[in-house]
Amino acid sequence: MAFQEMGKAFVGFYYPAFAEDRAKLADVYTDQSCMTFEGAQFQGKQPIVDKLTSLPFKKVNHQITTVDSQPIIGVDDNQACCVMVTGQLKTDDDPPHSFHQTFVLRPANGSFVVANDIFRLALHN
Amino acid sequence: MAFQEMGKAFVGFYYPAFAEDRAKLADVYTDQSCMTFEGAQFQGKQPIVDKLTSLPFKKVNHQITTVDSQPIIGVDDNQACCVMVTGQLKTDDDPPHSFHQTFVLRPANGSFVVANDIFRLALHN
């Protein structure tokens, strides 16, 4: 299904770029983008990239478990896409942590931008 | 923040209704709604409700850990809302399982409907 491929393609770009150089992610956010990172809210390209680049680890690796993608029918000519990712991430020498992240992607200039980004570590206690 | 309240209000309706009588949830889905449940895809009110009501447990309880909500700027006059929920659920006499669920809510008739619903148990192996 096309939306599954789109979600996987986005994830295949996003997490390697995150690991290599978080500043590169500026390309996928706009001044309309909203990010919630562990409950803290950010809006706009610069505040989001400032947050991502200030995270206090040097090395980070995301291992993706699932990527589920859906069209948002009736938005952007059915081209908007909701993606939920689950996986595990490892920062520096810490043990792996489970995480989940939701993106809303919207078409822009022949590509896609992140309208919404919600990230949580999987902690229940 | 208004969107946080909206997400919490939705969650406060959805999971108790899920526990009490899943057939009631027909009210929040439309024929445009997409649901992905553990990787299986459904579209439309009836297929979604059929899936939910056929889940093979009798008792279910969701304990919510986090609810993060954001406006989708530029959609539905900024009234569309992306919600990511994490929590634990307990079915019948099984041990609790962590889950995460994403909803896209859109305004309709003075209330909201679920445009997108993605559910996953937190399993990484």
Automatic annotation (TrEMBL), chains A, B:
Alphabetical list of PROSITE patterns matching this protein: NTF2_DOMAIN
Keyword Magnesium: no
Source species, domain of life: Eukaryota
UniProt keyword terms in alphabetical order: Cytoplasm, Nucleus, Protein transport, Transport
UniProt keyword Cytoplasm present: yes
Subcellular location: Cytoplasm; Nucleus
Record-level GO cellular component terms: cytoplasm; nuclear envelope
GO biological process terms on file: mRNA transport; protein import into nucleus
InterPro entries listed in its UniProt record: NTF2, NTF2-like_dom_sf, NTF2_dom, Nuclear_transport_factor_2_euk
Subcellular location, principal: cytoplasm
Domain NTF2 per the UniProt entry, residue ranges: 6-121
Pfam families found in the cross-reference section: NTF2
General function of this protein: Has a role in nuclear-cytoplasmic transport of proteins and mRNAs.
Protein's name according to its UniProt entry: Nuclear transport factor 2
Organism: Oikopleura dioica
